[in-house]
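ok posting inputs for the S-adenosyl-L-homocysteine job
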Amino acid sequence: MNTFNVLTIFPEIFSPVEKGIIGRANDSGIIHINKINIRDYTKSKHKNTDDYPYGGGEGMLMTAQPVIDAWRSIKNPGITIFLSPKGKVLDQKKCIELSEYNNLTLLCGRYEGIDERIIDKIIDEEISIGDFVISGGETAAMIIIDAVARMLPGVLGNEKSNKNESHFCSLLEFPQYTRPENFEGMKVPAVLLSGNHAKIKEYKFSKSLIETYLKRPDMLKKRGITKEEAKFIIAELPEKERDILKYLK
Ligand code: SAH
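and the output
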């Protein structure tokens, strides 16, 4: 079982990962989302978990004592991550790496952040969900739990369903369609209805390449493409031929 220990002052707001695929994995014991309420550990008279920053400045900071004592209550914290806009930005590669740990501990900041000594004492790594600021680490922690849990065996019904997903194989997912075949005059591509599995496979792969080229050229450049793969793009976007050559491996 993979355990996600979450240190938070808002344990009641984790319902997004307690429903759907991730919720089922939690209910069936494939993963365990262990929420620890930092406030339960405060020794302050008024149950505070925050205080004014030394040297002045905006807002409040989370104090060290309740966070550290809450962390110490965890039997096996594994690696401890602080969700922070200063961290390394999360990507699929990082999620795969994190899925290899049996125990992860996620510290959710609130207010203007946390006393730096918490980082010095217990934090192994800081992770950001993107170059913007949100009001608390909880939504960021849920994103990590969701993205990492999906990588674990048994969480997605079909083990293969990961492999085609955007980012998993350095390509974005191909466009998909469900019923009806004709929606307000917009038809599903005929090849998908053909029953020809080889053709469908090729179609999906070429659409993945094209989708990535059009929407995330930076990803495709990093991955590189073979001459064979370039042909798929040129077939659909002939005017891009010269540009595509720059992507060759
Ligand atoms: N004053 C801080 C931001 C505090 S926001 C600064 O300028 O760096 C409050 C909390 O929200 C943070 O402690 C962190 O846990 C969380 N948070 C904010 N933005 C985040 C991001 N991009 N990724 C992950 N966590 C974030």
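notes: The chain has a mean pLDDT of 96. DSSP finds nine helices and nine strands in the chain.
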